[in-house]
Design goal:
Elements: H1 3-13, H2 16-28, E1 33-34, H3 35-42, H4 46-58, E2 62-67, E3 70-75, H5 77-92, H6 96-107
Antiparallel strand pairs: 1-3, 2-3
């Protein structure tokens, strides 16, 4: 992942409703969720959620597919892994001992 892509992804996640929607979609798995369900769970109006999902999509963190009359959204796990990998590699700067506690913290 390049720095501009990381900046765009982090910027997209730097809003409470977008972060909540992304976390919900990560937990929902590959099946994803319809936009209406996401809006209700996050507590925003559907048109507001649409804007948030567009920002997440442009950042490459969320994908969508049409199923009948519904649009189903799901997290892009590859993009998420790339972002996390970039952060760990860049922030740890070749010093794995700095980032080692991350694995332990994630398991807790």
């Amino acid at each position: 992942m390049l720095l501009p892509q990381a900046i765009e992804a982090l910027s997209a996640l730097a809003h409470g409703h977008r972060l909540a929607a992304f976390r919900l979609l990560v937990r929902a798995g590959v099946d994803g969720l319809p936009a209406g369900d996401i809006a209700r769970a996050v507590g925003v109006l559907p048109n507001t959620l649409s804007t948030h999902l567009t920002i997440l999509s442009h950042a490459g963190l969320v994908r969508s597919r049409r199923e009948g009359r519904s649009i189903i959204y799901h997290a892009d796990y590859d993009a998420m892994r790339n972002l996390l990998g970039f952060l760990v590699a860049d922030c740890c700067a070749g010093h794995p001992e700095i980032c080692a506690p991350l694995a332990e913290t994630a398991q807790e």
